[in-house]
Design brief:
single chain; 7-stranded mixed β-sheet; 3-stranded antiparallel β-sheet; 403 residues; 32% helix; 14 helices; extended
């Protein structure tokens, strides 16, 4: 009846006012802006895409991407067209009648899409933002970094953001990459997370300079390798390998540390300042990184190797708010309401004594009821006590803490 009256009343009203009245139903008022003023979903998405050009401008400080020859593109296109409509190819691969050359596919991916994929993932993890601020580079030199696990033939490889535990990365990794004979390189491993003194600085975990070609073991080790030391309670730290190509031999004497370097103050590092100083002689070319979180070996490193206390981060949870107690609280379970104002230790003691009364040192515990809800309870008991007994039979609630 109300809707009929509303339609009659709004028959001669302007359309803008009709929209406002049409939104009123059963006493509710219009929430937010009316449809004639509010932005549509498409408009709001377009606003999110708009970025200030002064803050979104990025500078490429790396090498330009290598161009693929026209002949190689034609070969790939011919092969793609031949296999595009081959419906039996996957069936042959499943039946092992035909094989895909994975090495060739990987080689083609490294030449074409790998730098774009690596840069996109690094942007997602904030690598360039934290190391180079408004600069980036395409990792045109693929890095193969492997951690050997406990003198075994098992390796853990560093990719782009995979998780490696500190116990797996306790020793310096094996680093491989393709390099021309006579070229010089610099390899730096650092973390922008968890500097205990200055959050704007990093820690340098490994620094090798003037590496001849790809013979990493022959480079000048300016800072020896330090295992990842993510603090307990913080989460994942990022450990980043950046490979720079040198255009001449560089004097890194100022970064030389007494080895083993076991003072974290001496490992303070700032990638941006380092690059600004040597930007005329260095060009970033390779990138790989992994994530690591706390495990028990970190505690041993802090106490034994670094001879310092282990930092532990914990959240101080505020005490839950308890309303002032009232007489005869309505719609509140009797026992649960009173337990809010009791000492938790007293409650746990009560449950423990209840358990000890039913435990015999030489007899097996009584088997649980096969059908707990089918066993009757004394009707003279109060309802709250019946509820507690049913919960205990079914194993619900606080009784599980003492099992």
């Amino acid at each position: 009846m109300a809707n009929v009256v509303l339609r009659i009343f709004t028959k001669d009203l302007p359309s803008r006012l009709k929209i406002h009245l049409g939104q009123v139903r059963h006493g509710h008022h219009l929430r937010g802006k009316p449809p004639t003023i509010a932005r549509s979903l498409k408009q709001r998405l377009e606003l999110l895409k708009e970025v200030d050009p002064t803050t979104s401008f990025k500078v490429n400080i790396g090498f330009s991407l290598p161009r693929i020859s026209l002949r190689k593109k034609q070969i790939w296109m011919k092969e793609w067209k031949a296999k595009r409509f081959d419906t039996n190819l996957m069936e042959q691969v499943r039946n092992k009648e035909s094989f895909l050359n994975l090495e060739e596919l990987k080689k083609a991916w490294l030449e074409t899409d790998m730098p774009f994929h690596a840069r996109r993932i690094a942007d997602h993890y904030g690598i360039f933002q934290d190391l180079f601020e408004d600069a980036f580079f395409f990792p045109v030199v693929p890095l193969e970094i492997n951690y050997r696990i406990k003198d075994d033939d098992t390796f853990v490889r560093v990719h782009t953001g995979n998780v490696i535990k500190p116990s797996e990365a306790c020793k310096s990794p094996e680093v491989k990459y393709k390099a021309e004979e006579g070229s010089l390189w610099t390899l730096v491993m650092c973390t922008p997370d968890g500097n205990l003194e200055n959050s704007s600085n990093e820690y340098c975990h490994w620094f090798l300079g003037n590496i001849p070609g790809n013979r990493v073991e022959q480079g000048d080790q300016l800072m020896d390798y330090l295992t990842p030391i993510p603090a307990r309670g913080v989460g994942y730290y990022r450990y980043i390998f950046v490979l720079y190509k040198q255009n001449q031999h560089l004097n890194y004497t100022e970064f030389k540390r007494v080895q083993p370097c076991l003072h974290l103050k001496e490992r303070n590092w700032n990638t941006l300042e380092f690059y600004r100083k040597y930007q005329d002689y260095l060009t970033p070319a390779g990138l790989a990184f992994f994530q690591s979180d706390w495990d028990p070996t970190v505690k041993e490193v802090y106490h034994s190797a670094l001879d310092t206390k282990e930092p532990i981060f914990q959240y101080d949870f505020p005490k839950p708010y308890v309303r002032p107690q009232t007489w005869f609280p309505l719609k509140q379970p009797f026992n649960i309401y009173l337990d809010r104002y009791r000492d938790p230790k007293e409650i746990m003691k009560e449950y423990l004594l209840k358990k000890l009364r039913n435990v015999h040192p030489f007899k097996k515990p009584k088997p649980p009821l096969k059908y707990p809800n089918a066993s009757s309870l004394d009707n003279r008991l109060p309802s709250w006590l019946k509820t507690e007994m049913v919960k205990e039979r079914l194993g619900f609630g606080r009784i599980n803490d003492l099992k």
